[in-house]
Amino acid sequence: MPEANTNNLMQAIEQVKTSFNRLVLLVAPSGSGKTSLLHEVCETHSCPLINVNLQLSQELLGIPKGKRPSKVDRIFGTLIEESAGDLVLLDDLEVLFDPILQLDPLRLLKGHSRNKTLVASWNGSFEEGLLTYAEPQHPEYKTYRDIEVPVVSITNQPSASN
Known about the structure:
The structure is a single chain. The chain is of the alpha/beta class. The chain has one domain: Rossmann fold. 35% of the residues lie in helices and 22% in strands. The protein is built from 5 helices and 7 strands. The radius of gyration is 16 Å and the shape is globular. The model is unreliable at 157-162 (pLDDT under 50).
């Protein structure tokens, strides 16, 4: 993982420590190294890394589909609050975009970043102030402007150690 990505992410984490919403988005397409970067930060700073798809899906399994939208916010909040420490890393967020859950994923993340600093991997792009998730024809497609949280985009720079 290029050192610039790690430095940019750590600077963004420091930047939000005194903000109302303590959320940093790590934005890049799938397969670009977000998970590797989160693992690196997790090991360096001894903070929890939550696989949101796995953890949230396990909690939602016993709840009838029709009742899941009303329960997901509380369940997600419990996952965050029960995590040790002040910094929580979130990976594999795809379940939050499932239309069945009727969520605004960015609002959910912001809402739960008031008491802990959250770093969330986001499969998409951030260009000219527009944050996107998925492709326009995809049922989970979302776009946001004026997101009011720091965005760290993964850059695939060649390593200088060759």
